[in-house]
Amino acid sequence: MAEKGRAALLSRRAAIAMTAGAAATAILPRSAAARGAGRSWIPGAALVERFGPWMRHHAVPGMAIAVVEDGALAWQGHYGAANIETGQAVDTQTLFQAASLSKPVFAYVVMQLVEEGRVALDDRVADYVRPTGGADDPRIDAVTVRHVLCHATGLPNWRDERSADDLLVPAFAPGQDYSYSGEAFYWLQQLVEAVTGQGIAAVMAQRLFTPAGLDMAMGWSPERDRREVEAHGVAPDGRPMLLPSAFRREHWPRLHAVAARWGRPVATWREPDFHAACAVMRPHTAEDFAGWPMWKWRLPGNAVVDVASSVRASPADYARFLALMMPASAATGRPLISDASRRLMLTPQLERADRPHLPRGIGWGLERDGGDLLFYHWGKNGRAHISVALGDPARRRGLVVMVNGVNGGALAEQVAAAMTGKRYASIS
């Protein structure tokens, strides 16, 4: 195809994709959803009409939103394209990378283990398992489960990928300050695998996803691939453009091929299994990964399913999880942890000196709003898989926004402010 003709075809596809899939579903009648103090977070028709122009302004091709009201999923909307080149629409079956929204989901499961007495919040993680690549530092030994879940370990978010000798070293004594850390959650994941004897994907499915009826999974699988959104950047003409997704397409099928040879599904693997698979998998051909040494494949997030970022879900299913963080009622079903544990997750564990109105809970960030305490989490995988979740437990409402473009953070903030009627400090 001539370049001019191809450009025209892609332009037509982009125009179709940016309007495809615009659909909204009210699960509860608006009168029921609006019960309680304050306005409903379910958007009216006039606000919904603004979503398309906002998406075009930010060059974000796809977005999905879900609202919790009265402690249950009440509304969901789907807009634009999962893939700008094919025009595949975002719909109720579309899966987004929840990214760091994975952390509160994992924290919920950890609270189950705490209730069972299999681990305690103030247990030292190193007494169960040493961190992969951890330095010989007494501050490592002092890190507790609670420190991990409220980001008070002193560990970095992720270690440097430039050197095989880079070790995990805390920046401060645990509990003395705040330092957001995916590495710490990955370390706690290894503790959970040790005490349960199972791979983390199986643990999450058996303890939360299946019993709660959530269409969630950890990491990529071939049977769910067609439902996943693609990542998009911005072309020189200002329109969305497909970004390479080589890691998902290149690496994960190689791991599943090893799993087939072993006769053990990837969903059952523990951390050492991923490392062993990388040593025997088919060599990479993609330029970005072909030269990676073995030590680099051992880093969290490269070779493994990790609880810091691997959940795939629709906003509606994440909203159903969000509803588990609300005070229960007969209408919302049975929670999987006690109400005392739920309230503890939403109780300040770490007060931040630089932002006293934004303490840390267990798995969640918290925000003081007058006499209320709200909860939230941001997520970002790579440049373009961006999501945000907000909850107001006193009013039993919540909001989830997921997008697939590099400017999605600004879009999600704009949408959340318009739907909730306030600008949350935690997402500004």
Please characterize this protein's 3D structure.
This protein has 428 residues and is an alpha+beta fold. It contains 14 helices and 13 strands. Strands 1, 2, 3, 4, 10, 11, 12 and 13 form an 8-stranded antiparallel β-sheet that branches. Strands 5-9-6 form a 3-stranded antiparallel β-sheet, with helices on one face. It is globular and about 55 Å long.
Q: What is the topology?
A:
Layout: H1 3-19, E1 23-26, H2 30-33, H3 45-58, E2 62-69, E3 72-83, E4 88-89, E5 96-97, H4 102-115, H5 138-141, H6 145-149, H7 182-196, H8 200-209, E6 217-218, E7 232-234, E8 240-242, H9 246-262, H10 271-280, H11 294-297, E9 311-313, H12 315-323, H13 339-345, E10 365-369, E11 372-381, E12 385-392, E13 397-403, H14 408-420
Antiparallel strand pairs: 1-3, 2-3, 2-13, 3-4, 5-9, 6-9, 7-8, 10-11, 11-12, 12-13
Helix pairs in contact: 3-14, 4-8, 9-10
